[in-house]
Amino acid sequence: MIGVCAAITGAGLLKGAGWARVTGIVLASLTLFAQFLFLPYAPVWSVLMIGLDIFVIWALVAYRPPAPGSAPDSAPGAALR
11: Cβ–Cβ under 8 A, 6 or more apart, which residues? Predict the structure, then answer.
């Protein structure tokens, strides 16, 4: 069931849905907490997953969608001109 929620959230993230960012942060926070519970049993894997969860939360929080009406630059290095 959680996997289905994660898949739907991932599809929503790829489409740029705002609700998916919030849901992704919540799901990553839940797995972050769960990895602390597994820390005594699988320390290396848990530390790797904690780092990945922190990175995912940071990426979802730091993302800023482009402003409406702004055209994306198609040429490489267009910002340098």
Answer: 20
- Supply the pLDDT for residue 15: 93
Task: Tell me how far apart the alpha carbons of residues 81 and 79 are, in angstroms, rounded to a whole number.
Answer: 6
| Percent of residues in the chain assigned helix, strand, coil, to nearest 5 | 70, 0, 30
Q: Please give the model's pTM, rounded to 2 decimal places.
A: 0.76
Contact 56, 20 (CB under 8 A): no
pLDDT tens per residue across span 38-74: 999 999 999 999 999 999 999 999 987 777 777 666 6
